[in-house]
Design brief:
4 strands; two-stranded parallel sheet; two-stranded parallel ribbon; mainly alpha; 52% helix; binds fe (ii) ion
């Protein structure tokens, strides 16, 4: 249905930010925007974290019509500037037992939440032709990603670290070309990254319990529970957008772009029950379970 998004307006963060900000670069108004497109543009382009964490106002109106706006990068202060992956080393899961390594892992998880927040806002701007209910759902998920980021920020504070103290990568933003249509966005973000987090969050929660850090385990359990709903959202809308004569798995496989694939949509462990609760069909779950989990480098987990 939305196989080809019309990407008629491409914009760099700096040029689009300048149209939102005043001549001196300062925001025109600190009042919360009441139109979804204004709110999302401001969230993505704002350089400071506190602006990105401003929750969507309850009276936010979803735009009707309008042209797609494809932002190529978020606005970021120097502290949160996206760095090449080689400059940001994240300890493996086994490091969770050590408090200082755990802090570095939590920082990386917080970075994932920041990018998810920005990219759900990005999709609202990129796909104005989608149903209002779809974009309202994107905004609801965005608010939960903000909540997750705050949960991890709280955990970082107890580990003597503040978000931004360490470098951050553009792990999700780097996959922007794989998200050029509503279906592609759902496949990459919902059915790959968030799908894999159904395993990762569980693995980290277990590691937190083993490390006798129940507060971190509790934060991860909240993220895990929310993520099931986010995966459900992606699956439900894939059912709406796909062709009638194909399954969701077939639609996923013709849409997802390498190197993203089922092998990147799961962890080393496989939480089948989570996928069942997320409403995925048996064919999709079986394909995930049969896949060999791969790291972003292509090496098996
Ligand atoms: Fe999240
Ligand atoms: Fe999520």
């Amino acid at each position: 249905m939305f196989a080809q998004a019309r990407c008629s307006r491409f914009s760099s963060a700096s040029s689009a930010f300048s149209s939102w900000a005043g001549a001196d670069g300062a925001p025109r108004s600190s009042a919360s925007p009441s139109l979804a497109s204004d709110y999302c543009r401001r969230l993505i382009l704002a350089p400071e974290l506190e602006d990105k964490l401003e929750p969507p106002p309850s009276n936010l109106e979803i735009d009707v019509g309008g042209e797609p706006l494809i932002l190529r990068a978020p606005g970021r202060s120097e502290r949160l500037r996206i760095r090449p992956a080689r400059e940001v080393k994240v300890p493996p899961l086994i490091g969770f037992s050590d408090k200082s390594q755990r802090a570095r892992i939590l920082h990386a998880l917080a970075n994932h939440e920041l990018q998810a927040t920005e990219l759900f806002a990005w999709a609202v701007l990129a796909f104005p032709e989608t149903p209002v209910a779809f974009r309202r759902g994107l905004i609801q998920i965005l608010a939960e990603e903000q909540k997750h980021l705050n949960l991890y920020r709280e955990r970082l504070a107890t580990h003597d670290l503040e978000f931004g103290d360490l470098g951050v990568t553009g792990h999700f933003w780097n996959q922007l070309d794989a998200m050029s249509t509503p279906m592609a966005f759902l496949c990459a973000m919902g059915l790959t990254f968030e799908n894999a987090n159904l395993d990762f969050a569980g693995e980290y929660a277990e590691a937190a319990i083993a490390a006798e850090d129940p507060e971190t385990a509790r934060a991860l359990a909240i993220v895990h529970e929310d993520e099931e709903r986010h995966v459900r959202f992606a699956y439900r809308w894939m059912q709406r957008f796909k062709n009638d004569d194909e399954s969701v798995l077939e639609a996923y496989e013709r849409t997802i772009q390498f190197p993203l694939c089922t092998a990147r949509a799961r962890g080393k462990t496989f939480d089948r029950d989570s996928r069942v609760r997320a409403g995925l069909d048996d064919e999709f779950i079986d394909a995930l379970e049969a896949a060999t989990a791969l790291r972003p480098s292509g090496v098996p987990r």
